[in-house]
Write a structure and sequence with these properties.
Length: 403
């Protein structure tokens, strides 16, 4: 069994090195176009690295230019194509270097943290340093969309239950959280301090409630409420907070972005587009992606998508963003440039292969006609044109299930 275990840092020859992982195993299944490489012990390897098994699997796909699939329920992690075990082990070493080891002390005892600006940080429990990862790698987009599950609740549960966590390389994070909870409980002057805190918060809530009542008790007529609501919406629009600013309003940031895109079409670059969205305060808003999908492209859309793919990879961070992007594309090919309707399968393919659109979102969009962005007839027409790509996705899934 020892032969099946290796050091997490395979460049370390010390046999007493404490950080170990199972040796990555591979199994080739299928034949012809359906051949694929199954990694039967990916869960065990990922557990030793304190990372979800989807991360290294997706990393292999990014590095090899191959599609990957995960069936977490049945513990199956697959990379399309036939790949040698030695090659995947070498790629795993690269993954560990880029996304596991602390950049400062080279210790694998790290957690991944996603900041508010969607940067990924390695938080080292050994030396305390926080070091960033290379955000240019395609895997970072996948990690931001599928963040690691927090361990806080698990640590708290162990603390409340009185069970001490098993000492291991992967348990230190839970131990530190449990210790913090215990320290807070011991140093908080018990019930007296807790009672003071509860009373203080209750007083704040009471004051806020009284203020709200005073503000809205002036005039509760329908006209007055409507006027105050309109004023509040105008204020939020000025601050760039609302997601529902109408792009019909010339003063809205979305309308400004639309005008800027149209006036500077020949000079646009991925960097300039993102900076403009940041300048308008809407770089993280899902509706911004819809505006880009509709007004960033012209008849040369396929080449232009490849050019601006980094912008969408940076800005599309949720399922809501993906649906907005599809809505913008729907308007572009359905209303603005109907001659491009036949190109919708190629458009979807480029975004799909660029890890901007997920398979599940595309399939749901393709099977549900909606009049949110265009009229129902146009919506049907666009989805009808997308059928070749939807069929390709379905056949790819069926092929994997049969194998």
């Amino acid at each position: 069994m020892a032969a099946g275990v290796v050091n997490i840092r395979r460049d370390v020859d010390d046999k007493f090195y404490r950080y170990r992982m199972p040796l990555l195993l591979t199994k080739i299944e299928g034949k012809g176009n359906g051949i694929k490489t199954v990694i039967p012990n990916m869960s065990d390897v990922a557990r030793a690295l304190s990372r979800p098994p989807t991360y290294p699997t997706k990393f292999f796909g990014c590095e090899l230019g191959a599609q990957t699939s995960f069936d977490e329920k049945n513990d199956r992690y697959i990379v399309n194509g036939a790949h040698d075990a030695t090659k995947l082990r070498e790629l795993l070493d690269v993954f560990i270097e880029k996304f596991v080891l602390c950049k400062s002390c080279k210790n694998p005892e790290t957690d991944l943290i996603i900041t508010k600006s969607d940067d990924i940080i390695r938080d080292c429990k050994a030396c305390g340093e926080r070091t960033g990862v290379d955000m240019r790698h395609k895997l970072t987009t996948f990690i931001v969309k599928n963040p690691p599950k927090t361990k806080k609740s698990k640590g708290a549960k162990k603390a409340n239950g009185g069970d001490s966590p098993t000492p291991s390389a992967n348990g230190n994070h839970a131990q530190s959280e449990t210790a913090a909870i215990d320290a807070e409980a011991d140093g908080g002057n018990s019930d007296d301090e807790l009672t003071k805190r509860i009373k203080a918060e209750a007083a704040e809530l009471k004051a806020e409630s009284a203020l709200a009542k005073e503000d809205w008790s002036v005039d509760t007529s329908a006209e007055a409420v409507k006027a105050r609501t309109k004023a509040l919406e105008a204020q939020m629009g000025t601050l760039g907070v609302g997601d529902d600013d109408s792009d019909e309003d010339a003063d809205s940031p979305y309308s400004q972005l639309k005008t800027w895109l149209q006036e500077n079409r020949d000079e646009l670059s991925p960097v300039s587009v993102y900076k403009k969205a940041e300048e308008l305060g809407i770089a993280k808003r899902h509706k911004t992606v819809q505006v880009l999908g509709q007004y960033l492209f012209d008849e040369n859309i396929i080449a232009e998508i490849n050019k601006f793919l980094p912008v969408f990879a940076k800005m599309v961070t949720s399922e809501k963003h993906q649906k907005s992007l599809l809505g913008g594309i729907e308007r572009l090919v359905g209303v603005d440039l109907p001659d491009l309707t036949a190109a919708i399968p190629k458009i979807l393919m480029v975004f799909y292969q660029g890890d901007v659109l997920d398979e599940e979102v595309i399939q749901q969009w393709g099977t549900h006609v909606s009049k949110k962005y265009v009229d129902r007839d146009t919506s049907k027409k666009v989805r009808k044109a997308s059928e070749p790509f939807l069929k390709w996705l379905e056949e790819a899934d069926d092929s994997e299930e049969e194998d």
